[in-house]
Amino acid sequence: MIEVLLLSLYTGSLFMLVSVVAPVLLREKEYKDLAGRFYGRILARFYMVALSLLMLKIVLGGLKLMDIVLLSLLLLSYSLSLYMKKEKRKLGNIDLISVHHPMRVRFRRLSYLSLSLFLLQFFVAMYHLFHTVNEHKAGEIAPAGYILSLKGAIQIARHRTEYVRSERCACKTTG
After folding, report:
1. What percent of the chain has pLDDT over 70?
2. Which string of b and e fits 51-84 if b means at least 16 CB within 10 Å?
3. Hey, where are the domains in the chain?
4. Which top-level group of life is the source organism from (predicted)?
5. Verdict on whether the full-model pTM lies above 0.90
6. Could you tell me the CA-to-CA distances from 45 to 10, 78, 109, 135 in Å, in that order?
7. Interatomic CA distance for residues 126 and 8, integer angstroms
């Protein structure tokens, strides 16, 4: 059952990173450089926590194919993050560079790729969590709780989308 807890923590941290932290920091308009530095620090801590959770899950629960997939995706994300850090150093202060500059466009595409990898990790982790819960046959409480949390996550995503749409409409009417 510890596998379920570790996978839940891993999946939850991915959810927070993809749905809360990244959108808030990466949509910053005026202080992109500062927001990017905060995001980089958050990612550095996330990688330590995520790797620890996955390794602990493997040690305590045994190695499975999905663990290898998750670990590979995490290491790929980490490698991309290191590459982006190197590219960012070449750019300097991103606020001083035109949005249309080729290096900044390339960096933005790398950011989208990074976020897409995190989203893929989230879906793979959810799949793995669902199957781990079913393997343990923890009774009706765990699968029901899992389904409720998934429904809650979907409702949060829908609410967030509606909020963003209403904000856009408000900006159009005032601007």
Report:
1. 77
2. eebbebbbeebeebebbebbbebbeebbeebeeb
3. 2-138, 139-175
4. Bacteria
5. no
6. 13, 11, 23, 31
7. 8
